[in-house]
Automatic annotation (TrEMBL):
One Pfam family recorded for the sequence: BSH_RND
Coiled coil: none
Molecular function GO labels: efflux transmembrane transporter activity
Protein name: Cation transporter
Organism: Mongoliitalea lutea
Protein family membership: Belongs to the membrane fusion protein (MFP) (TC 8.A.1) family.
Length: 355
């Protein structure tokens, strides 16, 4: 025979169970208990310091010779001599080539003969003005001499001689500057004309790196400012100084800056190189770059307060690759976390390690 509980007993049984569950839900575990159970995150720290901060301006460009001259032939003729080849170093004034000068010499001889004839005519005409020449009136004497020189053709003859001498000088081609020869374009024996390019002379003693700098950074650059130069494909560091600043911004918002290299023995014009120009910033609040993290695209620096991490939104200034300038968000002297901060939460327990 089955025993049935009265309905009232079933109701009391369920009420007791419900009260027990409500009691368990109503008991809250203190937050400190959870924190005690979470292991402290080991972190390294640094101090936010107000100091001089080197902002690094990076720019790339090509090496150019500060002196680079194209040697151009100035008269027509046959190139009889060529005394240089590509790669040769030549001093300023050295004879590089000679043209056939037969015609130029003949022209000069004819000009000299014409000059002698004009001088003879002039001297003969002077005899007719002997009285004026002996008068002592210098102004009148000068006037008569100039008139007779023009009439006899002496002025024209003197100019013709100078032109012939200049034309003869053009048959000898000399180096306008000291440097190395590049791009030799004409061979010996060739028939050339006025305006033909013979070769290029590049002064490798003074090389300049032309780089493009953002217009926002140009106010931080001045003449004489030091720069570090890194040729492409080489780990060697060279030095230089800012030589020129173009006073014009191009369509891309860039300004051309010329950096004169202190040492250029291993560089050639046309090589690519990277420059780092140091622009010191005084009295800047600076933290190591490792202290800066980004959350939801906002800059954050964690500091330490009573062995817990503190989340600080910051406004970032300039960055030199090792340190970051902080414009606002933390105070000078604050202890900032530099490691294990990528996934760190606000008010998480931390432990400073020094090793």
């Amino acid at each position: 025979m089955k025993v049935k509980f009265p309905h009232i007993l079933w109701v009391l049984f369920f009420l007791a169970i419900a009260c027990k569950e409500e009691k368990q839900k109503g008991e809250e575990i203190p937050l400190e208990t959870f924190r005690g159970e979470v292991a402290a995150t080991p972190v390294r720290v640094a101090k936010a310091e107000r100091k001089s901060f080197d902002y690094l301006i990076n720019a790339s460009g090509k090496v150019e010779a500060s002196e680079q001259v194209m040697v151009v032939i100035e008269r027509a003729g046959y190139l009889l001599e060529l005394n240089a080849k590509e790669g040769d170093f030549v001093e300023k004034g050295k004879v590089l080539a000679k043209l056939d000068d037969t015609e130029a010499k003949l022209k000069l001889e004819k000009a000299k003969i014409a000059l002698k004839n004009a001088q003879s005519t002039y001297q003969s005409d002077l005899l007719s003005f002997e009285t004026i020449l002996n008068s002592g009136d210098q102004q009148r004497i000068t006037q008569i001499e100039e008139q007779l020189k023009a009439k006899s053709g002496l002025f024209t003859a003197e100019i013709d001689v100078k032109e012939a001498e200049m034309d003869l000088e053009k048959t000898i081609i000399k180096a306008p500057i000291s440097g190395r020869i590049a791009d030799l374009k004409i061979k010996r024996g060739s028939l050339v004309k006025s305006g033909d390019e013979l070769m290029e002379i590049i002064s490798s003693n003074r090389l300049e790196l032309k780089v493009k700098v953002l217009e926002s950074d140009i106010s931080l650059i001045s003449l004489g400012q030091k720069a570090e130069i890194y040729p492409v494909g080489s780990a060697e560091q060279l030095t230089g100084s800012v030589q020129s600043i173009n006073p014009k911004v191009d369509e891309n918002g860039l300004v051309q800056v010329g950096i004169l290299l202190t040492s250029s023995s291993k560089l050639l014009p046309g090589m690519n190189a990277r420059a780092i120009i140091r622009a010191p910033q005084n009295n800047s609040l600076v933290v190591p770059k490792q202290a800066l993290v980004y959350r939801s695209q906002r800059a954050v620096v964690f500091t330490i307060d009573k062995n817990e991490s503190k989340w600080n939104y910051v406004e970032v200034g300039k960055d030199n690759g090792q340190e970051v300038e902080i414009l606002s968000g933390i105070e000078d002297g604050a202890t900032v976390i530099t490691t294990n901060n990528l996934q760190l939460a606000h008010q998480a327990p931390v432990q400073i390690v020094t090793e």
